[in-house]
């Protein structure tokens, strides 16, 4: 072909039907529908998205324009980059000051730390600390029940320096999120919000640049909620708190200017990116319904990488999870971001892990150049379609919540907890059966991990203050919000914060306890026939056992029933799994299990499901068939229980 002919050649436009034809050929008889997947949000993900999936209303939409799904700034992060706001952990104010100075000198761009009663053990030192940093960096603080004294300390620091107008960022709290964790609010709900609105009014006068109203969906996320539920809850909470301020005499513009939203970012990359984009769309429409002007409808978003997805075992994998979640958050268009430390679930945050967490964001900024492009995910047929569908489903759920009385009424009735529980149970079932993977925990577990079980104190949630009396004692003044919650009598079921990996971690710690008692948790694998016949299933069973901290002890190539019994005689294990291919199961038959049970009082399992004679295998003594759809969690727990009894 000449160069002229090449220039004149055109390519046929590929259609969706063309792709389907090629895909069908690759599937070799499987239906195209097998490529479609359903999410916990009840959204069906297609294997291929095309221009036809792009929402019509997106035509002409640009970053910085209504409905702000593509960001609140027209130039994206080039006009105002996101703030690295990693929460710092400390034992006293002196240590916090040292850690803040170091973190800020190494790239952190916001003042963020765990707000706890120890902060107020020395109010003079606290005021000095706040004075040192408040004019240079914005605050990123979920003050929780300690909002009142913290704002008081910041006000004092500002007055002494004469620079109140220069403080920025947020020192905020979400009373509804706190109520969801305590199982109720102070008895006089209206009186509580009247006092809260009055306190925020005083703070607005003294600290006009500081946002004080937090809409915090993190507790719901860490209880197992899906992205759709998080969005509906966030909008419902925002509406509730906004209305409370309006009811107590606030102007709409002023109230909206004080609101900041806080989300946790999970592991489903595109879903989490779409979640943040949908959140801006939903809040824009909500604020518009209140009568807000376009500029007032912009949503300021703070985010943190999920605690729900992290693990104690194989902790370095948490670095990868955090990087994935931080990437999704940045593409989603956040303003403040906390990236968790990889050892945070174990309660042992160290200098090294804090540095890695901070550098994760610095790499996204300086090496991945994500701050150089406005809305890099914008225009993606998949992301835009997912954003639209997620927003629509979240809005439907918000309307249902509204019809039931709003966020607080659905908590009081238990309806919202029930909806979250259904999602959490679905997630937990998928983890238990290993339909969904947690790398290093329920798949590819590393039995050489030497991890200490966290103490009860280390397991306690950052959201809860366990001793309100002790907390109040440590605070000299301005503790009205804390004192109000002291009077709470639980009137509804509180949210149950968790991590997905916890059930498997409990198994691992049970196995470790056995080892400490001198009992090696082990299960024997009776490997039938030559290597190629049993290796696949033996490898599968070894991986399954390791998820429970159990060691697999393999036999040699077993070619007779007597060889199997000889292996059992030489083994110290009391539980065995027969591993082979279907031809091996057919040739040995249930007689293998019968003869083993006749000779030894052991528990027997079979890897996979035999093609025939399943009932005969069970009658012969097979406890359970272990395969890819088995409930691994139940099986492993049962195995460990037998070892503990022995």
Features of this protein?
TIM Barrel, alpha/beta, 26 helices, Cobalamin-bd_sf, Rossmann fold, 646 residues, Cbl-dep_enz_cat, 14 strands, 10% strand, cobalamin, cobalt
Task: Write the topology of this structure.
Layout: H1 3-8, H2 16-27, E1 37-38, E2 44-45, E3 83-84, H3 93-105, H4 123-133, E4 139-142, H5 147-161, E5 169-173, H6 175-182, H7 189-206, E6 210-216, H8 218-221, H9 227-247, H10 252-257, E7 259-265, H11 269-290, E8 301-305, H12 317-332, E9 336-338, H13 351-366, H14 381-403, H15 407-413, H16 415-432, H17 456-459, H18 468-474, H19 480-486, H20 502-516, E10 522-527, H21 531-546, E11 551-554, H22 561-570, E12 575-579, H23 582-588, H24 591-599, E13 603-607, H25 614-620, E14 622-626, H26 632-645
Parallel strand pairs: 3-9, 4-5, 5-6, 6-7, 7-8, 8-9, 10-11, 10-12, 12-13, 13-14
Antiparallel strand pairs: 1-2
Walk me through this protein's architecture:
By secondary structure, the protein is α/β, with parallel strands linked by helices. The chain folds into 2 domains: 58-432 and 470-486, Methylmalonyl-CoA mutase (TIM Barrel, Alpha-Beta Barrel); 502-645, Cobalamin-binding domain (Rossmann fold), CATH 3.40.50. The chain contains 26 helices and 14 strands. The chain has helices spanning 3-8, 16-27, 93-105, 123-133, 147-161, 175-182, 189-206, 218-221, 227-247, 252-257, 269-290, 317-332, 351-366, 381-403, 407-413, 415-432, 456-459, 468-474, 480-486, 502-516, 531-546, 561-570, 582-588, 591-599, 614-620, 632-645; strands spanning 37-38, 44-45, 83-84, 139-142, 169-173, 210-216, 259-265, 301-305, 336-338, 522-527, 551-554, 575-579, 603-607, 622-626. Strands 3-9-8-7-6-5-4 form a 7-stranded parallel sheet. Strands 11-10-12-13-14 form a 5-stranded parallel sheet, sandwiched between helices. Helix 11 (269-290) runs parallel beside helix 12, helix 12 (317-332) packs parallel to helix 13 and helix 18 packs antiparallel against helix 19 (480-486). The mean pLDDT is 92.
């Amino acid at each position: 072909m000449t160069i002229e002919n090449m220039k004149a050649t055109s390519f046929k436009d590929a259609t969706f039907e063309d792709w389907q034809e090629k895909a069908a050929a690759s599937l070799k008889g499987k239906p195209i529908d097998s490529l479609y997947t359903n999410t916990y949000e009840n959204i069906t993900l297609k294997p291929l998205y095309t221009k036809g999936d792009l929402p019509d209303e997106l035509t002409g939409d640009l970053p910085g324009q209504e409905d702000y799904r593509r960001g609140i700034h027209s130039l994206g992060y080039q006009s105002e980059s996101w703030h690295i706001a990693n929460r710092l952990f400390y034992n006293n104010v002196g240590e916090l000051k040292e850690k803040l100075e170091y973190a800020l000198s190494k790239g952190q761009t916001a003042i963020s730390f765990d707000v706890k009663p120890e902060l107020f053990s020395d109010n003079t030192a606290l005021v000095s600390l706040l004075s040192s940093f408040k004019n240079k960096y914005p605050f990123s603080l979920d003050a929780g029940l300690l909002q009142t004294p913290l704002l008081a300390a910041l006000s004092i620091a500002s007055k002494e320096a004469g620079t109140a107008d220069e403080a920025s960022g947020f020192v905020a709290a979400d009373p509804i999120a706190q109520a969801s964790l305590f199982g109720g609010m102070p008895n006089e709900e209206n009186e509580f919000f009247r006092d809260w609105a009055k306190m925020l009014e005083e703070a607005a006068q003294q600290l006009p640049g500081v946002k004080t109203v937090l809409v915090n969906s993190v507790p719901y996320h860490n209880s197992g909620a899906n992205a759709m539920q998080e969005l509906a809850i966030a909008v419902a909470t925002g509406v509730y708190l906004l209305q409370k301020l309006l009811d107590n005499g606030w102007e709409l513009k002023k109230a909206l200017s004080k609101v900041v939203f806080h989300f946790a970012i999970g592991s489903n990359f595109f879903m989490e990116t779409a979640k943040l984009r949908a959140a801006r769309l939903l809040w824009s429409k909500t604020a518009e319904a209140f009568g807000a002007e376009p500029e007032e409808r912009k949503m300021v978003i703070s985010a943190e990488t999920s605690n729900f997805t992290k693990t104690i075992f194989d902790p370095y994998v948490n670095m990868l999870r955090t990087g994935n979640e931080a990437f999704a958050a940045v593409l989603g268009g956040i303003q403040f971001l906390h990236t968790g430390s990889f050892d945070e679930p174990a309660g042992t945050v160290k200098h090294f892990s804090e540095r890695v967490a901070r550098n994760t964001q610095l790499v996204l900024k300086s090496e991945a150049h994500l701050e150089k492009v406005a809305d890099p995910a914008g225009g993606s047929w998949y992301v835009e379609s997912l954003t639209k569908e997620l927003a629509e489903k979240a809005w439907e759920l918000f309307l249902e919540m509204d019809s039931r009385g709003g966020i607080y009424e659905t908590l009081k009735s238990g309806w919202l907890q029930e909806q979250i529980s259904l999602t959490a149970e679905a997630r937990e079932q998928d983890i238990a059966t290993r339909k969904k993977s947690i790398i290093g925990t329920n798949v590819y577990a590393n039995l050489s991990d030497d991890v200490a079980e966290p103490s009860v104190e280390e397991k306690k949630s950052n959201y809860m203050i366990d001793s309100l009396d002790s907390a109040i004692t440590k605070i000299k003044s301005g503790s009205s919000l804390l004192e109000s919650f002291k009077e709470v009598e639980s009137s509804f079921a509180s949210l149950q914060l968790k991590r997905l990996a916890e059930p498997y971690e409990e198994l691992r710690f049970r196995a470790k306890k056995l080892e400490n008692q001198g009992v090696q948790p082990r299960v024997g694998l009776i490997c039938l026939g030559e290597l190629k016949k049993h290796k696949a299933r033996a490898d599968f069973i070894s991986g399954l056992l390791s998820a429970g901290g159990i060691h697999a002890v393999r036999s040699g190539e077993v070619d007779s029933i007597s060889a199997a019994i000889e292996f059992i005689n030489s083994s110290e294990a009391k539980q065995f799994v027969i591993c082979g291919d279907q031809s091996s199961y057919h040739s040995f038959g249930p007689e293998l299990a019968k003869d083993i049970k006749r000779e030894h009082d052991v528990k027997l399992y079979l890897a996979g499901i035999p093609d025939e004679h399943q009932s005969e295998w069970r009658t012969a003594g097979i406890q359970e068939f272990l395969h890819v759809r088995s409930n691994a969690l139940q099986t492993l727990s049962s195995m460990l229980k037998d070892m503990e009894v022995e």
